[in-house]
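Blinded run. Sample ID left blank on purpose so nobody reads anything into the name before looking at the predicted structure. Input follows.
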Amino acid sequence: MAAPILQAQIDINAPVSTVWDLVSDLSKMPQWSPQCRWMKPVGGLRQGARTINLNRRGKLFWPTTCRITELVPEQKLAFRVNENNTVWSYELEPTEAGTRLIETRHAENGTTATSNFLVGKFMGGVPNFEKELVEGMNQSLTRIKNAAEN
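Blinded prediction complete.
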């Protein structure tokens, strides 16, 4: 069963190149995301490269791995989380005042049974967790905006 697309966006008063530099430095992801505590690209920033990650929610920690599925400099960065098949992306669009940054979580084919079980058992159920993810996306985008504008 397909999961809903989760999305948030923000307008940033900074050039696309500045926003791209922040978003494409995956080692900075813990500065933006309230859930990601560590993200280490393996082999540089390129399509097909892998990342090793550590996430946290309260006292619960869990590792994940990702593969970069799309990389178009200053336009789009996307990666698939291997453990649950979701694809997270950042898209940048130039605006008159700077940049519109859009963060999306796609799960067209749903998430894995293991992921659904763990979210249901330890994270308050899928609807609550997805609401929390959107709140986290908005926090991440606000943090990126603050960094880009300062």
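Unblinding after everyone has recorded impressions. The chain has one domain: 6-149.
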